[in-house]
Amino acid sequence: MEFERRREQLVERLRDRGTIERDVTAEALRSVPRHEFVPEDRRSEAYRDQPLPIGEGQTVSAPHMVVVMVDRLRLEPGDQVLEIGTGCGYHAAVTAEVVGEENVFSVEYVPELADRARETFDRLGYDIAVRTGDGHEGWPEHAPYDAAYLTCAAEAVPSAVVEQVRPGGRVLAPVGSARQELVRLTVREDGRTERETFGGVRFVRMQGG
Q1: Which residues contact 142 (CB under 8 A, 6 or more apart)?
Q2: 150 and 65 Cβ atoms separated by less than 8 Å
Q3: Among 105, 90, 14, which Cα is nearest to 52's?
Q4: Which of 74, 103, 162, 208 could cross-link 99 (Cys pair, CB 3.0–4.6 Å)?
């Protein structure tokens, strides 16, 4: 009950700040037990609005950043979504609460993190598909996707990921090295993209490639 109370307080704080734009996003954040996705010695910090280390040199994004990314992708129930960078699985779980768990396909480069995320999903009852591999290649078997996003910063959005998103679909990613920006690409009918930026962010570097 204590974790539920803290989770509700987190959602209300983000709403009061205007961070959460859509009711469906608030409900998704309210539904996912973030404390179950972080290491046990970090559970007391799970509902602070900050990134947390999850092992293997990686972190889980702060809840406000997960909210921003879900909102910026304009996700709807039934959308098929590709995630690059499973990490601990928290972001994928929030996404799954919006689109449906059978519609989320996540790629993780670090085998230990992929295995741990699968175990967490199984324990919590999420049917989210996780593949161990290089996110630069996307996951072509389940394409086309309605949306895709990266939870790690790349020099440029991987072309394979863009190609696996249908026309009219969106790709959201932190892009850059020394200075990162959150970038949204909308795929056009001719395969080219329209680019929008949403300000500076800080994410761990994308691996592989």
Answers
A1: 80, 82, 105, 129
A2: no
A3: 90
A4: 103
DSSP line for the chain = -HHHHHHHHHHHHHHHTT----HHHHHHHHHS-GGGTS-GGGGGGTTSSS-EEEETTEEEPPHHHHHHHHHHTT--TT--EEEE--TTSHHHHHHHHHH-GGGEEEEESSHHHHHHHHHHHHHHT---EEEES-GGG--GGGPPEEEEEESSBBSS--HHHHHTEEEEEEEEEEE-SSSEEEEEEEE-TTS-EEEEEEEEE--PBPP--
Alpha-carbon distance of 187 to 154, in angstroms, equals 18
Query: In this structure, what token pair is assigned to residue 152?
Result: 């790690």
Tokens coding 123? 């324990």
Whether 61 is catalytic: yes
Cβ pair 154, 206 in contact under 8 A: yes
Task: Output the six-digit token pair for 70.
Answer: 């879900």
Q: How many CA atoms lie within 13 A of 18 on its CB side?
A: 0
| Tens-place pLDDT, residues 118-157 | 999 999 999 999 999 999 999 999 999 999 999 999 999 9
The model carries a pTM of: 0.95
Say what the pLDDT of residue 52 is. 94
Closest to 152 measured CA to CA, from 68, 87, 63: 87
Q: Which of 31, 61, 106, 177 is catalytic?
A: 61
